[in-house]
Amino acid sequence: MAILYALVARGSVVLAEYSATSTTANAIARQILEKIPGNNDTNASYSQDRYIFHVKRTDGLTVLCMADDTAGRRIPFAFLEEIHQRFVRTYGRAVLSAQPYAMNDDFSRVLSQQIEYFSSDPNADRINRLKGEMSQVRNVMIENIDKVLDRGDRLELLVDKTATMQGNTFRFRKQARRFRNTVWWRNVKLTIALIFLLLVIIYVVLAFVCHGPTLPSCL
What does the UniProt function comment say about this protein (predicted)? Predict the structure, then answer.
């Protein structure tokens, strides 16, 4: 079996445990519980001969398992995550004040079942590999979004330039419309002036023709 032993503890208080074989894992596990530094959430692994003790502590609740060194890290930590979620979902805030081994009668069976599943069922590895790939995709997506956010100044600059271009285009169209109107009125005025000048010339010519000394009167 890949996983041979597991426990759930609050600090150094063991609330439930199960061992699939006769080993000194429980004694070593208690030493590890005493040695885990600080109170922060942590994931850690400790080697002992050909076995690895994997530890996951979240919100003061510690889940520990001993696995064969050939099991790697993906399956043991997927097991720890599953156990943590099941334990919190089952007991809630009761874990904050529970006495030693208060949950052992019921939850040791859950530990046994999950050890068997994660050690023997190939579907466990496939599911966890899929979860890992999905997590990697999510990390890449978040990284890509962060890169876009890092380019925020460039995006703002681009928006500013676009707005400026749009403003310039609007002003150009307005000026062009005003210029066309000016030219049109100038042409109208010029046409009226030419017509007026032509009428004056015609009047002068007619006046000269009609009142000249050697030509008969136009009347």
Answer: Involved in the targeting and/or fusion of transport vesicles to their target membrane.
Please tell me the total number of residues recorded for the chain in this structure.
Answer: 219
Report the C-alpha gap between 17 and 110 in whole angstroms. Answer: 10
Q: Which two tokens stand for residue 58?
A: 């979240």
C-alpha distances in Å from residue 57, one per residue of 34, 48, 61, 72: 13, 20, 6, 19
Residue 98 exposed, middle or buried by CB count within 10 Å (0-12, 13-18, 19+): middle
Residue-wise pLDDT for 72-85, tens only, equals: 888 899 999 999 99
Which phi and psi angles does 40 have, rounded to 5°? -80, 155
Locate 111 and state its tokens: 């530990």
Give the tens place of pLDDT for each residue, 104-159. 999 999 999 999 999 887 776 665 555 554 454 444 443 443 444 444 444 444 45
